[in-house]
Amino acid sequence: MKKLLLTTLSLLSLSSFAGPQHTAAAKGDIEELWKAIGEEIGEEAEDSQITSFIDSEDENGNTCLSLATRNGHFEMIEELIALDADVNHCNKLGARPIHIAAWEGPFGHGFEPIREEEKNENGGFDPKKSEAYKLTIINLLVENGANINDVEERDNRETPLSIAVNREEKSIVKYLREKGAMVSDDLRDCLLGINGRLIVFDKKNKQSNFRKRLEMVKLLRILRSNS
């Protein structure tokens, strides 16, 4: 998992072949994005030209939306969607923006400064607020056409739902299920063994964490189908 995460981070970082639009999107700088549009394709560019420009890939197959999502820039994501950015674009790692939002984002994990939306009363990182902030981004993508059941095009074949379960983010699991996310056979096997016996383990403590996983099973409503 650690190796996979490092690979993800390297492919989502700015490459040496990133254009000015990619740099602006990664920084969340809307003014800089429009400056790049004006300088690169002209201030009189047609809407279709602007869309093609922001949907162009860097060396790692990331578009402006991929990078803005990676860094949790909500306003930039809104701007790119308004410019008709492809919300289901797949980068070279096989991840679409909704997978990137589910896996990554700064969200208090040290990739970016902690945002006001993520702070606790003492100014530090609050995991619950961070999860809520991530959910606003996932919701924005879903409401604008992101495929909630898309499977990552790599060996582990994760969906947004399986990622949320893996990260034990209950509010996101509940949201995705309410929006119609399907429970795959692989996800059932992850949570349940033969005859519905829980077999998963807490990632941090390397020991059985029955209560947390039982909550996930209840949220997914899969006990009956596995009994």
Outline the structure in words.
The protein has helices at residues 2-12, 20-27, 30-41, 47-54, 64-70, 74-82, 97-103, 127-143, 160-166, 170-178, 185-191, 210-220, 223-226. With 227 residues, the chain is mainly alpha-helical. The chain is globular, with a radius of gyration of 19 Å.
Distance between the termini: 30 Å
CATH-defined topology of the domain at 2-147: Serine Threonine Protein Phosphatase 5, Tetratricopeptide repeat
Approximate strand percentage: under 5%
State the shape. globular
Taking all Cα atoms into account, the compactness measure Rg is 19 Å
Unreliable spans are: 1-11, 106-111, 194-199, 223-227
Alpha-beta content class: mainly alpha
Identify the CATH architecture of the domain at 2-147: Alpha Horseshoe
Order of helices and strands: HHHHHHHHHHHHH
The CATH class designation of the domain at 2-147 is Mainly Alpha
- Count every helix, treating DSSP H or I runs of 4 or more residues as helices: 13
Oligomer: single chain
Task: Give a brief outline of the structure.
With 227 residues, the chain is mainly α.
SSE topology:
Elements lengths: L1 H11 L7 H8 L2 H12 L5 H8 L9 H7 L3 H9 L14 H7 L23 H17 L16 H7 L3 H9 L6 H7 L18 H11 L2 H4 L1
Supply database-style keywords:
227 residues, mainly alpha, Serine Threonine Protein Phosphatase 5, Tetratricopeptide repeat, 52% helix
